Amino acid sequence: xxxxxxxxxxxxxxxxxxxxxxxxxxxxxxxxxxxxxxxxxxxxxxxxxxxxxxxxxxxxxxxxxxxxxxxxxxxxxxxxxxxxxxxxxxxxxxxxxxxxxxxxxxxxxxxxxxxxxxxxxxxxxxxxxxxxxxxxxxxxxxxxxxxxxxxxxxxxxxxxxxxxxxxxxxxxxxxxxxxxxxxxxxxxxxxxxxxxxxxxxxxxxxxxxxxxxxxxxxxxxxxxxxxxxxxxxxxxxxxxxxxxxxxxxxxxxxxxxxxxxxxxxxxxxxxxxxxxxxxxxxxxxxxxxxxxxxxxxxxxxxxxxxxxxxxxxxxxxxxxxxxxxxxxxxxxxxxxxxxxxxx
Length: 343
Fold this sequence. Notes:
The protein is mainly α and about 350 residues long.
């Protein structure tokens, strides 16, 4: 176990180092002068230019600049936004929890709906109900998330007027961003009608969560269904039937666990798609997450915000992927033996 933890720690550190190098290089890849990209200031004379170059270590070689950049990141000095003038660390600290919250509710929806539907379709494989569920999941998975979100806005917000079109909560409620998660912040806020605020927050959550969660649910259904069908054809299932075990005992004792284990590694791959879809949906619903924040930074050519924001998103995705894969290894130690045997 210690060896596995050490291996994953080294993998995380090396991946984070590569991401940091790419983030540092963006300052030189953006169009325009490097100094203006980093500071947002156009030097008026040579003296001011030299002072700014010394401040940002641009008068030294690239290695020294990168070490200085690493030191600033480690100390929490991530720079300031050109557009708002606020600390990038504070802005990302507000925007990132909104994206995590939306992604969490979407994956929760996918697991609560997708796993039972996938098991049902797999057990009733090639029946009318299985074909209907499979057709619906394939169709949903094939729909672009931005188009699906726009359809939801058109139907439920514009035509039926039963769901808000943007934001996390109405302007009537003044909710300080203590944790960054709107439902938690509502519970921590005093002197408001918490029940009314909760209902308002859930009404704002409904459409963005469904837009992201529906496509993730379709993916989970397909993965579970395929895994259940594979398990049903295994020799130990045939042996269990020959011993006279009931269908429910076979399902509960053999199918559930053995069908779930193979798809857990694939769920780590879905994390990237899930967060990407969440960031796309944020821009359509004006959800104040990291995706919407990055789009605004692109429009305003806020280069420090772009490179630190991309690093933050990449770090989040890599961290979640490694944690899920590590969890898979903990609950299924046999994976390592099979992987070593195939090398």
